[in-house]
Amino acid sequence: MSTAAQAMAAAAARLRAAGVPDPARDARMLLAHAASVDAARVTLIAPEEIAPEIAERFENLIALRAVRVPVSQLIGVRAFYGREFHISREVLDPRPETETLIDLALNTAFSRVLDLGTGSGCILVTLLAERPDATGLGVDLSEEACLQASANAVQHGVQDRAQIMQSDWFERVEGRFDLIVSNPPYLAATEMADVAPELRDHEPHMALTDGLDGLSVYRIIAATAQGYLTAQGRVMVEIGWQQGSDVVAIFENAGWGEVTLSHDLDGRARVVSAARPA
């Protein structure tokens, strides 16, 4: 029987051979999950012999990670903006770069927010958790995503202020909002072959790509969102890092005012914001 440290080392080597980025971190997180301990405490159990049932769970997790199933799907949660969100393969895994959108949104005044393509609900739930007086609506075409977002709203105690509804973008949306946010599918169909296996093989394609040029949802939002904004409202959309000029042009050509491009912590174009014309 091996120690936890030996098991982690062997697992990391296996993941490295499979081309997994940061294999030591993943092995540590998956062992923590298998042993039901906090990841920060794995070093405390490292010298101990690993129990057979934990070893079996760990082996199963490593086998799945080796075929590039994302860690967050294996453990069922993903950290985002200081909170843990339950996820599954039915929703997009929240990404750190999306926190740029959260920061920008929290620098604006809003009491009612619309999240288009809410997925796990990470954007809507985070904004409502950070703004206790705000209410919001999250819509998604996927029924499974709506269920996941609803569960995350309950998890973080905002369910009384968050409405989750199945809708094809604005199709069933009514009323006006101070803020409209979205992290839409922005990969072009031609880009899908080059994305990491974790995304291409294990995350919902309709949350990743529009199947066209990656810009079609921005055209829908730019053409439609003004009818759902209050006079002082803003729309903020996450974009692919090479799409800045294209998405800015889409909003400017649709007659929006104050169209701005913001960058994430890596200096990449990440969010386009726009207001109704004066």
Please provide a written account of the structure.
This protein is an alpha/beta fold and 278 residues long. 40% of the residues lie in helices and 19% in strands. The chain folds into 2 domains: 4-67; 90-275, Vaccinia Virus protein VP39 (Rossmann fold, 3-Layer(aba) Sandwich). The chain contains 12 helices and 9 strands. It has a 7-stranded mixed beta sheet with strand order 5-4-3-6-7-9-8, sandwiched between helices. A two-stranded antiparallel ribbon has the order 1-2. Helix 7 (122-130) links the parallel strand 3 and strand 4. The protein is elongated, with a radius of gyration of 20 Å. The termini are far apart. The model has no long low-confidence stretch (mean pLDDT 94).
Topology diagram in text:
Layout: H1 4-17, H2 23-35, H3 42-45, H4 52-66, H5 71-75, E1 77-80, E2 83-86, H6 99-106, E3 112-116, H7 122-130, E4 135-140, H8 143-155, E5 162-166, E6 177-182, H9 197-202, H10 205-208, H11 216-224, E7 229-238, H12 244-253, E8 257-263, E9 269-275
Parallel strand pairs: 3-4, 3-6, 4-5, 6-7
Antiparallel strand pairs: 1-2, 7-9, 8-9
Helix pairs in contact: 1-2, 1-4, 2-4, 6-7
Which properties best describe this structure?
single chain; 2 domains; 278 residues; 40% helix; alpha/beta; seven-stranded mixed β-sheet; Rossmann fold
Brief overview:
The protein is 40% helix and 19% strand. The chain has helices at 4-17, 23-35, 42-45, 52-66, 71-75, 99-106, 122-130, 143-155, 197-202, 205-208, 216-224, 244-253; strands spanning 77-80, 83-86, 112-116, 135-140, 162-166, 177-182, 229-238, 257-263, 269-275.
